[in-house]
Write a structure and sequence with these properties.
heterodimer, A: mainly alpha, B: alpha+beta, five-stranded antiparallel beta sheet
Chain lengths: ~260, ~160
């Protein structure tokens, strides 16, 4: 197995369309040369598709108000001081939201590859959006009870944040299941190996005392012989498959006389 | 204390005797009925030591390639009679020297082999081979050789049930 040559971040930026200029051309050139990287890129595309499907389905079940409130809570947790306890910082964030702070700069959200997707060491960026998913329930308040944002236009822009959070959670689960193709040339959906449950041997019934055993080339043998007045002998010679073949050789006295 | 009576009455003796007679008469018939018809393939060969040809049909008979048969350098198949042997019934095959080969299947053994009786004699005589009893596996031959005929020796191969 060859070593990946393109960093995870670059691959993801390429999928997001964030690369430009010489950086974009360099990554494309490396992709052409590395089947492993092409496989990783395909895996990222597949993963993004799955996450998008899951996130869209989940987001459809939330109202705009709910999604906006949830995003605010998550964002407050992200911006809380590192040394502060979770509860304190969350409450502060909620309080800040309640006061209707000025529109903040929304960070660029992107699909972050899990540990199973790449062989490059994890980067600090991967933990930048660690969500505080337990926040609303921990406060004993439902999202609907939170203060609503003042600007409706801002609400519409926030719901994709919830999508991103759900996407991160789904990514963690899917990253385990969807590892990059080690053989990118193989067709999708083609199982690498098939687990076959061994079938028990068919039962063989052996009769204890069969009435007749079919003789299979046991040969021939003389049980009894009466040469009369002649001289004879009995012997065996090897026949087909070396089975014994009985031979009776008897002189012809009439001929001798 | 009275001893149990161990002597049989005359009527009981008669009954047991009759039963034994019936069994003795019926048993052979039952055995014969259980013995299926068997086909016998016979080959009559005139073998000579003088150089000649070996019948190609004998090339596959392994026993004839062994001593003492391999001392014959000429082998001619005179006939290949086939007979169906019924249980306990004689089947006669005429030989070129005027004698008759008589075959009778006596019994099918538990291992599948056939017990067969063979004799070779002139009609109404017992001049050559009065009795030969052989156990033969179906398909495996046995040979009777040694009769003088036409400057050579008759070799008779008999294969049952092949």
């Amino acid at each position: 197995m060859s070593t990946p040559r393109i960093e995870d971040t670059l691959l993801q930026r390429l999928l997001d369309g964030d690369l430009a200029g010489s950086e974009h051309d360099d990554v494309l050139a490396l992709l052409d040369e590395s089947a492993v990287d092409r496989g990783r890129q395909q895996a990222l595309e597949r993963l993004g598709g799955f996450i998008g499907d899951v996130a869209t389905e989940d987001a459809a079940q939330l109202s705009q108000a709910e999604s906006a409130s949830l995003f605010d809570a998550i964002w407050a947790g992200i911006e809380a001081p590192a040394g502060a306890s979770q509860t304190t910082s969350d409450e502060g964030a909620l309080a800040d939201d309640g006061t209707g702070s000025a529109p903040r700069k929304r960070p660029k959200l992107r699909l972050i590859e899990g540990e199973g997707l790449g062989t490059l060491p994890p980067r600090s960026e991967k933990v930048a959006f660690e969500p505080k998913l337990g926040l609303p329930d921990a406060a004993g308040q439902k999202p609907a009870a939170l203060p609503a944002p003042k600007k409706a236009a801002d609400q519409g822009a926030r719901w994709p944040g919830l999508v991103a959070v759900v996407a991160l959670a789904a990514a963690a689960l899917l990253a385990i299941a969807l590892r990059p193709d080690e053989n990118p040339g193989a067709g999708r959906g083609t199982p690498v190996a098939e687990v076959v449950t061994p079938r028990p041997d068919t039962e063989v019934v052996v009769e204890d005392d069969p009435e007749v055993i079919v003789a299979t080339h046991l040969g021939t043998e003389v049980e009894e012989v009466d040469f009369g007045t002649n001289i004879g002998t009995v012997f065996q010679v090897p026949g087909e498959q070396d089975v014994p073949v009985a031979v009776v050789w008897i002189s012809d006295e009439e001929y001798v006389r | 204390m009275n001893r149990p009576m161990t002597t049989m009455t005359t009527a009981t003796k008669t009954a047991w005797l009759a039963l034994g007679l019936v069994a003795g008469l019926v048993a052979p018939a039952l055995v014969a009925a259980q013995t299926p018809a068997v086909q016998a393939n016979v080959v009559v060969i005139l073998a000579k030591e003088e150089p000649g040809t070996i019948d190609p049909s004998l090339a596959g008979v392994g026993a004839l390639q062994r001593p003492p048969f391999n001392t014959f350098r000429t082998m001619q198949v005179l006939s290949r009679p086939r007979v169906t042997l019924q249980a306990d019934q004689d089947a006669d095959i005429a030989l070129p020297n005027g004698r008759r080969l008589r075959i009778r299947v006596q019994q099918v053994m538990p291992d599948g082999r056939l017990r067969v009786r063979v004799s070779i004699n002139r009609p109404n005589q017992s001049d050559y081979l009065p009795l030969l009893q052989v156990l033969a596996s179906p398909g495996d031959p046995f040979f009777v050789a040694g009769q003088a005929h036409d400057g050579g020796t008759l070799v008779i191969g008999i294969t049952l049930g092949s």
